[in-house]
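Let's sit down with a protein and look at its sequence and fold side by side. We need material for that, and I hope you will provide a protein of your own picking. Once you have written the record down, we can walk along the chain together.

***
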Amino acid sequence: MNSSSCVKPKETMNEAAFHIGNLAYRAMLEEVYTTPKPGLVDLYSTGAHKDMDVISFEKSARALEPYFASMALEGMRLPGMPRLLFERIRRIGLSAEEAMYQATAGVNTHKGLIFHLGILSAAAGACMETYGTVATEYLVEMEQAMARETLIKELKEMQEFTSNGEKNMNQYGLTGARGEAISGYASVRRIALPVMAKGVKEGRDWNRIKLETLFMLMSRVADSNIIARHDPSVLLKVQSIARNFLLAGGAYGVKSMVTLKRMDADFIKGNISAGGCADLLAVAIFMNDLAEDPVKGRLLWNS
């Protein structure tokens, strides 16, 4: 066998990268199409947001898809240099943010997911090149090698607080998106994915599975978006509301849709939006679809 036969054709790499980018795109749409989500943009309302709607999210997701594919391709090119890979995709991420703002006329629809799905798209590309698969354990291992050390250093060295996440960390000791990445997406792996898998195994409706997953996250995750709008007391109140909803049957309850619509009105009135948990729902969908044995046959729209 000559050495050239071991080199993957460029077309094959591009096709795999496009597939990963497409899964990121679908995950963003799956999140926004999950309905009804109290205080969040969905097919039912714009939630506690006056500057965005489903169309904004669709435009943003479409604009971002090629950037996630580019990050996946970088992962395939640099699987053995994870720290350098992280530096490269952060630069791509800045261009992705510009594309998002251009698509939405200046509205921040997906900045958090550019960070999360960008890291994971690149890690997925590196896993494909290294292992030929994207099992969750490999994905997290690669993500940790890429980002953990750099992000820990950034949190320690942070002195000027400009973003909401950085202000929250300073005032309340929260680590936000960086903390989730540093943990190897522990909230997604330990909370979201098991709920998702259980719902699928039980044959539940996919929209309700996503709602159940979202509320499980809301009941346990310190959502920095809620604190950015309010303070820890409101976060604790939202976590309590989420726990009570789950105890009453959750998204699988007979009257759950009525309860969620009423809760949406309350959250809108209170200006409450669990945007951090919504991002983690999208991450869970993406990681689930990347896994070696992804859940099949439950997309909400026609491909």
